[in-house]
Input
Amino acid sequence: MMKKIPLITVGIITGAAAVFAFLLGIIVTTSLPTIASRSEASNDYSKLSVPLINDAGESPFTKIAEIVSPSVVNISAKKTVTREVPGFDWYFEGPFDDFFKDFFRNPPKREGKTQTLGSGFILSEDGYIVTNYHVIKGASATDIEVKLNNKKEFTGDKVKIIGVDRRTDIALLKIASDERLPYLKFGNSDKVKIGDWAIAVGNPFHLEGTVTVGVISAKGRTNIPLPEGPDFQSFLQTDAAINPGNSGGPLVNIRGEVIGINSAITTPSGGNVGIGFAIPANLARFVIDELRAEGKVTRGYLGIYLQEITDDLKKALNLSSLEGVLISDVMDNTPASKAGVESGDVVIEFNGKKVEDLQSFRMQVASTAVGKKVTMKVLRDGKEKTLKVKIGEYPDQLSDVGVENDKKSKLGLRVINLTDAQAQRFNLDVTTGVAVIDVKPGTPAADAGLSTGDVILAIGKTSITNVSIYEKAVAKLKTGKPVIFHIQRKERKLYIAVTP
Output
């Protein structure tokens, strides 16, 4: 038999229960946002491979430095350069200023040795190493020294140049090591987002093993007028401190994966100002695979000259947007000419993908397999037209060290079209001709006084408008017979006699 509870007791219990329920409700209600926020935060942080701070109070960059640094190497390269003889500068002001400038425009020169310093990183346990082409440019394998993080050095026949690609500023080396080496893996640079962590590791100013941290500031940077090129550009921009000596070193993400190869800085002072550029990993991986397999990079080729769509061109051509690229010229007997491509066409789609701008289109064509048949949509006279083109092989195979584009005559020149991105670094105020980007010491061109940055306007009576015409004109030159080169050097035009 159940015992009866007095009514007063029931009232006390009921009241207490009500008060407890009320207080519990307040506590739960006020806690819900906090609980939800913690839950959401937990979900966000769970996506990270490392905690922001570990149990020991260390930042994630501590672990990244430990993982990455052993695979980063120091690369130095000795190369021969030609310098003007010190003390031979001529200063003159007066009515004969121009005469004396011409008379003394080619002061005596002498050859000497210089040493570059850069970084690189190991790609495989058997010793493949990637760096920038400009770090070893002009040096032979025997002039390159590779120093590992553990102070071991490789020189002479222990270092081999597998291949270089100046158009992306990438070089692939291999060292002969008796032991397995630590190496880094590539991440997916296409998935990198603006604001992601970016960690640069390298040897700036001879300071080995330097780690700097920042974020990805921008993606797809193009048309950057850099002294060493490259002309295929789609840079990752970062504010992680990058200085001279960082070139060729890795830019890694918070997981220690390589997302870029540190390549250049934009600076008025020569030091870091928070604007550095790295070659994206996905582009680098394509080039490295080609160099490793073939020793050179084979690229797709159409045989056309391109222009960006400006506001004025958009209005004149009655285009709906600035997207696409304008074909300014089509070379004879090329894949483009055979497919019926015409000057004035505006390319809006290539191989099923929309064409946004000149640089992205060049990358699309270059990365297309040689021999592949693709469709290309163009606007011609306001109407859309679909063309079928068979991709050719880019003829300018400069993946080999020191290749000239005038092999037959041995003038010692390397030239590019004025529309080439590399020409922008000279700030050329000309619209026709070809720009000289390299003059080999001790060659007819160097002896005649041609210099990097000169623009060749004519050879003999042949007007030079592009590299193709230049090469044909040079091929006709006779050994030992002087020929007049009409050139523009900065704001002045000159005639120079060159003897092949």
In short: The chain has ten helices and 27 strands. Residues 85 and 108 are 6 Å apart (CA to CA). Confidence is low (pLDDT under 50) at residues 1-5, 26-48, 88-101, 397-409.
